Structures
1.
Amino acid sequence: MLEVRKREALDKAYKIAKFLKEKYNVSKVVLYGSLAREFDFWEFSDIDIFIDGWDDDRFNYWTMFLEIENIARPYKVSIVTQRDTTEALLKEIEKEGREIG
């Protein structure tokens, strides 16, 4: 059952990446966190996504986030931009993340 849930979450992540590239012209979408790691995904894992190359307009961010939440359902999603992140998280994303779009 967990393997099915992980496959579904990965499918949602790729759909989100495609959506972000097509609608918001982001240059890079990186999956990180438990879904990106081979053995850490569990029942309550969310979809962690880092986006780069996007015009970071706060109003559009919330519009975009609501659209992404709809795609991700029933999974929770976390979206981080270059502006939102810390050096420590950026290093983690560079180390374990995988580009999906």
Note: Strands lie at 28-32, 47-52, 77-81, 98-99.
2.
Amino acid sequence: MQRIISACLVLILSGALVMTITAAPILPSSSLKDQVRSLHGIEKLRVHLEPLSSAITDLDVDADELVARQRRKLRQAGFEIVSEAQATDPGPVVPRLTIEITGVGDQQVAGALACTISVTLEQQARIERLDKELFLPTFARHATALVPEAEVSKTIRQTTFYLVDQFADWSRLTAAGR
């Protein structure tokens, strides 16, 4: 019975990972081009990981290792990664890529955790209606999955890498003029 439940969870997880959505907040598909265009010209980034929920940390997810991997990935993609101190130097505000990972368990689905992973880019944007420059989310990717507890750490690493990779891919597309 336990194997059947595990197999079902893996199938659900596989399907859920395929079903990521683009949102900042949820945008109609006709507006997605603006979200991608907003990535053009970004060369420097800050990377921020929101504090992990206890349901995640109890399963030995290493936040420092997770952030270090994402920073390496972004450097390999051509981004300069700066610290918070460097981001406040005089000049334009450096965009921030925020990673948020939440998890919650349910006694009705023992041995599994529902996880949501979000990767959001926030940057300076001008709102003409207000005649102001604001620091706003302009791009986001999300994934939700039901994961067997034994697979949580691996799934979080892989899914976060996938979402950050999508961000880097979209950024490269804008640089190529597409």
Note: The radius of gyration is 18 Å.
3.
Amino acid sequence: MHLNFLKVVLLGLILPFAVGQQFQYATGKSDGSCDGKIPVINDWIEDARELSNAFMHAIDNVGTSIVAQKLFSSWFRLKFEKKGDVMEPGDSSKDSWNRLTTIANEVHKFLVLDQPYKGMQGGPKVFCDDNFVQELDWDKVVLDDNDQPVMYQGHPLKLSEQYANVERDLEGYVPWYAWGKKGYFFAAEENGGALCDSTTLGVSIAGYRAREEFDYPIPPSDLIFNDIIIFCPELFDNRMKLVPKLKDIWYIDPSEYCEPVSISTVLPWSGTLYHEMFHTASGHVNMDPSNKFKDPRGWHVTDWEYDPRMAQDLIREDTVENAETYVLFALSYWYYRKNWNDPSLKPVTFYDSFAGFWDA
């Protein structure tokens, strides 16, 4: 999650899933270590599971739930039509509906069902700083798993030779090397050579199967890189957290406020993990192993907007590509279904990004 747009492209290899793997944490003296932070991250995981359960409940009940229909319409710009006794996405919305439900299901499989998302190569590695990555120039040599130069036809292979297609096709992108992961990824050049800064909460780097039609000097299978998630130091700064977790959210009675109350008022920082999972789990969801020319990242979720109002102004095709839209939708539906231990409280949600009674 970044307050500015960051699109990351990574070349790697998809390996078989090992049963039982979830998040893998960098620990000990390694760069990016999460020592002392894992209990906090585990709390974020529990919140992400709650939000994912809410999302799937909305999907499962959209045919008869007017609240689910209105929230899908407001956040994803979907249109619904009556089919028999239930409401279904209209013809113009079916492609977006299929895409968003597929992606939400991949996230749910990993977070709640303890199953691999499509293309997963072991659980994503979690780092708590970006001090394990280094921005490089294209003329640097390619390193192997032992951090030694890769030799090709008698000379050290340069990054510009190994990834000539990336340098050609992704203008403004530069190589980055992850020392702990022994692999390269490609992102926009950053001032100061850092992925984390004062505006960044998290960064996801989704590995994907190399496109076999490219003629690499060294097979990409020899330069393996898995999915990683970086939680930036800013995310652990308690001074910044008005709402750390779901349990800290309170009931809003819209009738008691003179001004509309934005959903951003109750957006928990723990939602960052849920946000990053949409980047990670969607990185391979469009993969077709039988079609080597099909881009496996064709449905990859990126960052178009973070502001709730601006997110609702996106066109339909962009809403399903925007990670924060999934978080805001899930929170809106979770808030509607929340039991506040007081039956007199009327359910509230966020149709237009502001708090309102469910039947308004």
Note: The radius of gyration is 21 Å.
4.
Amino acid sequence: MATIGVLCLSNGGRYTSEDPDFAPGLVDPSRYKLTPLFRQIPGAWASNVVAGDPSCEIEYVKAAQALVREGANAITCDCGFTVRYQQAIAEAVPVPVSTSSLLLLPTLLANVTEKRKIAVITADSRCLDADILAMLGIDSPSRLIIEGLEGTDTYNYMWDEDGKIDPKKVLADIDAVVS
């Protein structure tokens, strides 16, 4: 039976919302028609994955291979900055791999005129750098409006290895960044 494999950060934080649309979050199997397979990546924390720690790549590759052996027919990740490991993971497994919604940026840019811009809201705008954009085939950030959650409660939560998050506060933080 087809199922998705999810590569997860080692952070142990959980959602605290009573809202059924959010709680308990991505790792809740009841959110899916088919039970996904989850694998925490040893040593992969928000703090080092967002910053681009190259030593995490092999752990992501090994975990993706394990998920495929367990029956995953596709691989995704719970942190958009794992896009740095996209190529290595994709080359290591025989199933589709989509590590990040950032992979959609080239398509989005191609679907609007060159006078238009695309907004990107990210965990840390300082880490969405030229290397990532180049990996995506984007030569210049001139058509991107990149905003990060730096300075928000959500940003602080992301670095806490066992934090609790209230999705309503996340949405409020995003609204504040967008405003």
Note: Strands lie at 4-8, 14-15, 37-40, 74-77, 97-98, 118-122, 144-148, 164-165.
